[in-house]
Amino acid sequence: MSAWRIPRIAKFLYNHNPFYLISACLFVYGLQAVFRPGEVNLLFERFEVAYIDPWFLMLGLCSVTLLMGVTAYLIVRFGKVWDDARSLVLVLLLMFLAISVSFDEIVTLASWDDDSVRDAVSLLGFGLCFAIALSESLLRGLSVRLPWSYRGPLYAFLGLFFTFPLWVSPEVADLSMDQARWRVAAFPLIAGLITLTLLPAVRTGKSALANNGTPWNWPWIPWTVFVFIGGAVCFRSYSLAISFDLGKAKAHFWDTSFGLYFLIPFLIPVLLVLLEISLVDRLKKLQNGTLLAAPLLLLISYPWLGPWTTHYTYSRFAYEFVETAGSPVFIALMGLLIFYGYAWLRGLRRAETGFVAMLLLAVFIGPNSFGERTYSPSFEDAQAWPLASLGVLQLCLCIARRNSRQALIGALSLSLAAGLLVAETKLAGFKASVTFHLVLASLLIISTVFRDEFAKRLRYIAAGGIGTACVVAMLAGPRFGLPVESVGGYVGGMTVLAFAYGLQLRFWPFIAIGILNCAGGLASIGLWIVRFIRDLSIPDEVKPLLWAMACFSVAVFISTLKGGLAQRLEARWVRLVKDESEPDI
User: Is 448 left (phi over 0), alpha (psi -120 to 50) or beta?
Assistant: First the structure.
C-alpha cells in the first residue's frame, strides 16, 4: 500500500505553522474592537461615545503577549520545537509593536487634564518595561546567549517605539502642529543612529554568535529579529504621521506630512551595516549588491514622486522641509557620499566610482533643489565645492598612484571649480577665459611631469590649445576693442612658451605652433605696417621711401634664410621629429 501524498499547502502549514501569527493578529484586532467604542455593544451601549479604561486594553494586550512568550518557552523546553519558537519570537515583536501603536489615540487625547497625561506616560512606561522584562526572561529561561552588543540596540529600538509618542504628541509635549511634524520626521533619524550602534557587534563576526544556545546559526540569529525591526521602523514612521498629524486643513485621510524621503536617515545606516557585514564575512555578492542598490535611495528621496504629493499637508511640509533642512535628494546625496567614502576606505575599489558619481551629481543638485522652483540642471546653478573636492581627491590619488589620467581629472575639476567661482565675482565676463587658460596650464604641467603615453597625447592637445588661443586673440582681440599692444604681447608670450616647451621636451608640434605664431605675427605686423603707411599724414613723395625700407627688410630676411638659417632650422626640425618618434627606453 502506498503512503498518502500530503498536499504542499499542508506541508507548508505544518512546517512553518503560521497560526501563531494569525492568532496574534486576531487577538490585537479583537481587543481593539472590544475596548474601543464602535458598532459593538459588548461593554457599552451601541454607538455610545465612551472610552473604557485604557489599562484594560493594556492588560489584555500584555496577557496575549505573555501567553505567546510562555508558549515559546514551553515548546522549546519540553518539545524542542525551535521552528515554531522562531515564529513566536517574531510574533512577540509584532505584539510589542502593536502595544506601542495601540495607545496613540490615548496619547492624543491626553490634553483633557493632568491625570490623562500621567496615564499616558504610565501606560507606555509599563509597556516598555513589560517588553524588556519578557524578552530578557525568555533569553535567560531558554539559555539563549545573545551578546549585549545586539541586545542593547534591540532594547533601544523598543524604547524608541514606546517613548517616542510622548515626545511627538502636541498635547503631552505642548507642541504646535508644525513642531510635531518635524518631530515625526526625526523618528527615522533617531532609528538610524540606533542602527549604527550595531556596527561594533558586526565587526566581531560570526564567532560571537557561535554556540548561542539555539539550533540557528548566523545570519538567522540575530538578523531575523533586526530585519523585522527595520520593517517596523518604516511602518511606525508612517503610523506616527497618521496618529499625530491632525491638521485641520486635511482634505483626505491619507494627507499627512509623511514622505518616503523621511526614511533616508534610517536607510543610509542600514546600508552601512549591510556593507560591514559583507566586509567582515567576505560576502562578495552582498558587497556588490549593496554598492549597486545604494543609488536607488535617490529615487526614494525625490519628494514629488507619488499620487499623494498633490495633497495640501504633504506638499506644504515638503516645501518647508526643502527650505529649512534642505532638499531630500541633496541630503541623500550627502549620505551616499558618506556610504561610498566609508566603503572606499574599507578597501572596496568599486566604491571609488560611486563616490565620484555622487560628487558629480552634487554639482547640479544643491540644498534647495526640487523645492518650489521647477528644477532644471544648469551651469548657472552649478556648485563649485564638489568639483573642488573631486579635484583635490584626484590630485592626491595621482600623486600616490603616479597616474596621469587622474591628474588630468583633478586638474580639469579644479579648473572648472575656479571658473564657477569667478562667475560669482565682478570678473564673471572672463569666466570662460580663466577656465580655458587654467585647463591649458594643467595640460602643459601634466605633459611635462608625466612621461607615459597618455601624457604624450596630452602634449598634442596642449600644443593645439596654444595655437587656438593665439588665433582667437588675433582675430577676436581687435573686434572686442583690445589694444594692439595687448594682443601682440599675448601672442608673443604664447609663442615664447611654445618654443620653450618644444625645445625643453624636444617635441616638434610646439615648435610648429611657435613657427605658425611667428608667421601669423609677421603677417599681422605687415598688415599693420601697410595700414600705418597708408594712413600716415606725410607727403606722397615720401611714402615710396617707406615702402622701400619695408621691401629691403623682407629682402634681408630672405637672404638670411638662404645664408644657412633655413638649413639649420630644417636640420633642427628633422632632429626633433626623429627624437619624438623614437620610443622612450
Answer: alpha
